[in-house]
Amino acid sequence: MKLVKDRLVIATHNPGKLREMAELLAPYEIEVVSAGELGLPEPEETATTFSGNAAIKAEAATAATGLPAFADDSGLCVAALGGAPGIYSARWAKDAGSFEAAMGRIAEPLTGRPGPHRAHFVSALALARPGAATIVVEGRVDGELVFPPRGTLGFGYDPIFRPDGHDRTFGEMSSQEKHGIPADGSRALSHRARAFQEFARTCLVD
After folding, report:
1. What's the pLDDT tens digit per position in 93-142?
2. Helices marked H in the chain — which ranges?
3. Which of 68, 129, 132, 142 is the most exposed place for a label (fewest CB within 10 A)?
4. Rounded to 10 degrees, what is the CA torsion of 21, 179, 89, 101?
5. How far apart are CA 64 and CA 91, in angstroms?
6. Is 184 an active-site residue?
7. Among 73, 95, 167, 184, which one carries the catalytic annotation?
8. Strand 118-128 and strand 161-163: pairing?
9. pTM
């Protein structure tokens, strides 16, 4: 059932996420506006899961605007670090001053340890609507960490993550390669695109 038909708030202030989410929504001809463009404050993310924090952001945007809102919460989970940075992925970068510094924080305790260093990205996508229950879906992609970082494409931790079955990092892949939805309906590559495939089936298709 198509749950979004006209205007949708993308509840993010992150330019990289906004770009990717707008590209994913473009084929559905939905008018989008970002939380940043509307001057909405960033809500405090107090949940302990990606799904919980995505719901907080979407629900806050809907409460402030009266419009349907779409939010993502995502992060990198490193097995050798007990799943860190996980839901604190953005916070690590903020505290360190940049994602480059945060990648160094990940690399430091792994130096000298035998690899491969397994990791996965998770993306939770939430849709909030006035007077309706929030819908949340998740996507995941597994891979290995590589150091030093490689590539200048993408954003965040992309330069240190090489997805399984590929010899390049997300930082070395174009936007279309990383999160393009295959025309034949086969599984997308990135965590956000995989979550979006499920989201589209659930919320955007009649």
Report:
1. 999 999 999 999 999 999 988 889 999 999 999 999 999 999 999 999 99
2. 15-25, 50-65, 89-96, 99-110, 175-179, 191-199
3. 132
4. -110
5. 24
6. no
7. 73
8. unpaired
9. 0.90
